[in-house]
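#random but structural
TW: two for the price of one
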Amino acid sequence: TDAEARPLTEADLRGRWTLLFFGFTQCPDVCPGTLAVLKQVTAKLADDPTFKARGQVLFVSVDPARDTPEVLRPYVAYFDPAFRAATGDAAALAKLTGPLGVIYAKVPGEDGNYAMDHTASIFLIDPELRVLSAIGLPHVADDIATRRRR
């Protein structure tokens, strides 16, 4: 389900260049840092006609209990109103994360709070839904933009 409470399907990715990142909105560091880098990447690709016409950033939350569409919408819009966001129940997330080798797990904290450990790679997906690159940490905007251009 995307941040507009609509189903997210293959059709939302097919025909588009997608920079896909998994995380959660209450992440204290990696997730907001990565979304800030992805904002820099999209600025660097603003002169790339293919990415400008058919590029997107998609943030997928692995914390559906807290990251409802109402939470996701303003979170990604803070970084860029054009960024998309989605989440799903355990079965839906498994269908997307499994083939990509993405792992995530709830980490109990104090007073009933919790964090989520998760793969921190950015996935570059082409218009035919092929994963061209899994970009690990550290995320550097120039490097990511160069990979997309190649």
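TW: number two ↓
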Amino acid sequence: CLDAASGEVIWKHDCRREYGGVARDADGGDAWFPPCGCATSAIIDGAEVIVSVGGQKAGAFAGFDRATGELRWHALDDRGSYGSPVITTLAGVRQLIGFTGKRMVGLDARTHELLWEHPFEAEFEQTAITPVVWRDLVIFGGEKRPLLAVRVTREGETFTPEVAWKSVELRPYITTPVV
């Protein structure tokens, strides 16, 4: 976090140093932290800065105090993703929607509880695009996978994601689709 007028550092985090290093995978890499590091764009939600960090210490998503940099909350003990999350209202609930290393998820934006998930294992966990929400669809893709549109419905407190369509011709890897 920089002071906009002076460029002076107000606070910062070295996510790999602070939150990585809990366990190693079979190749000797960090089992929870993305191999290329914390590469998403942070998003602002009120008084918080939300980042896809990854792992058991900071979770797949972490919310930092916008003014102080203090870790306020974290959710899901998954590996992080390279795709930036979004905040939107879907199925009548304000949600944080984004990739973890192996799934697309929707979290309650207030409580950070998991509302729904859709498995999505891209090669090398290369989930680098930002999900696009259009009406009741979450549109996303990843390395060597078709573009998917998942419809999220709600009955009572149960959220259900179902594939509405997929396109094998469109396989976005890094570029986020637009509606």
